[in-house]
Amino acid sequence: MSIDIATETELNTELILDAGTAAALFLEARTANSFTDEQISDETLQAVYALTRMGPTAMNIQPLRITWVRSTEAREALVINMAAGNKEKTLAAPLVALLSYNPRWHENLATTTPHMASKVASFAENSALRQTMAFDNAHLQAGYFILAARSAGLAVGPMSGFDSAGMDQEFNADSGLKSFLVVNLGRSNGRIDRARLPRLDFDAANTTV
Question: Where does residue 108 fall: left (phi above 0), alpha (psi -120 to 50 degrees), or beta otherwise?
């Protein structure tokens, strides 16, 4: 693994994951900029979502919405709104997922949180709160999505470099959804573009009080 022996030993002691799973999900997984040409089946996408939806969100609101971009026409419309440095790799990826959040998540409370269905009207009146909750929890779900895709054997290339307004006009105009992340997906071709960048150590990022 691409970690020092001391850290590896500690992880093997503390984690319930086996070493191979920990490596595939975290330790050896890298942001992917290119992939093999192998296509991704609908069944794999369903498996990815089956795991993604199980992660916790506030009040179980599940605001994440995924648009799987397969067709050439849709891909070209998406790439128009990408930053210049992200266009070529997005065109070449076997599949692209556009992640958006639903600011009207409260309309699904009877399904997602039945015991709070009576609160729909109060949430309807508070658009600022709904927006904040949707934004925060969809980003939380995006983390689950990345790990779920890796669990299905996919390499993942998430990007925020795009014109959100343009993307929403193209893909979300009728739904009112708000895009926030584009994720290229495919099977790993083993290519590593550069050495892994440093991660902060425990003392730099953690405080115990």
Answer: alpha
Q: What tokens were used for 110?
A: 């009877």
Q: What are the structure tokens assigned to 161, written together?
A: 């470099």
Looking at the structure, give the CATH architecture of the domain made up of residues 31-188. Answer: 3-Layer(aba) Sandwich (3.40)
So where are the chain's domains?
Answer: 1-30, 31-188
Determine the pLDDT at residue 9.
59
* pTM for this model (two decimals): 0.94
Please, what are the averages of pLDDT over each run of 10 residues along the chain (209 residues)? 54 89 95 96 98 98 98 97 97 97 98 96 97 98 98 98 97 98 97 91 92
Cα gap 7→20, rounded to integer Å? 15
**Model pLDDT, residue 47:** 98
128, 49 contact by CB (below 8 A): no
SS3 string, the chain, reads CCCCHHHHHHHHHHCCCCHHHHHHHHHCCCECCCECCCCCCHHHHHHHHHHHCCCCCHHHCCCEEEEEECCHHHHHHHHHCECHHHHHHHHHCCEEEEEEECCCHHHHHHHHCHHHHHHHHHHHCCHHHHHHHHHHHHHHHHHHHHHHHHHCCCEEEEECCECHHHHHHHHCCCCCCEEEEEEEEECECCCCCCCCCCCCCHHHHCCCC
